[in-house]
Amino acid sequence: MNKKTAVISGIVIVILLLVFGTREWVNGNQGSTLEKEKMNRIVSAKYPGDILSTELTNREDKRQYKTVIKSEQGVYVIWSDAVSGEILDMNRTEDEESQRERITKDEAEKIAAKHGEVKSSEFNEENKVYLVRVQKEGKTYSLEINGTTGSINSKSEVESEDEPAQPNTKITEGKAKQIALKEVKGTVTDIELDDEDGVIVYEVEIETKTKEAQVIINAFSGEVSSVTMETKDSD
Question: Is the dihedral of CA 92, 96, 100, 106 positive or negative?
């Protein structure tokens, strides 16, 4: 009986050693965080698409990987256990850019500064863009900068507030000069747009050897409205 008891006791001890040893090995492995590349492989195997980003976080007091993936159905955020690789949560987000951090106002102004001296800047919450005004070589420009990527969506010159914008005309200034010179042979000394009774016209001043002429041309049709000639004063 003693021999039999000793054999049984020996078997029990071996089993206990195996159980506790295995538990310690498992616990040790449970404390190791998976590498980002391995986590990406796990996610890619389950969810086809392009991985936009993967970051290690502390969510719900647990180490979790936050993976953003873009598929044909949309952009998704996947939360995974950083140790076991188990997928814990998955939800669809609005778009790719919503997962990226917004650039700061200072960063937007540094981007704009490459195009001139920054005069003002503000963030448009609705369109998620920075609107920045800069000045360069006496001109003012308005820049629209993507609030996420920092890329410039548009750049346009701003008309000076004390100088009204010139109206769009079908007849160019060069064409108006040609029309005027067909009426009066000479040298164009001045040309400007004017409003005559609601009609936009070119006033072209031409000088000849003996006379000074003014030719009025419709800025849209090119029709000559009038030609006025005056004799030059002789000194």
Answer: negative
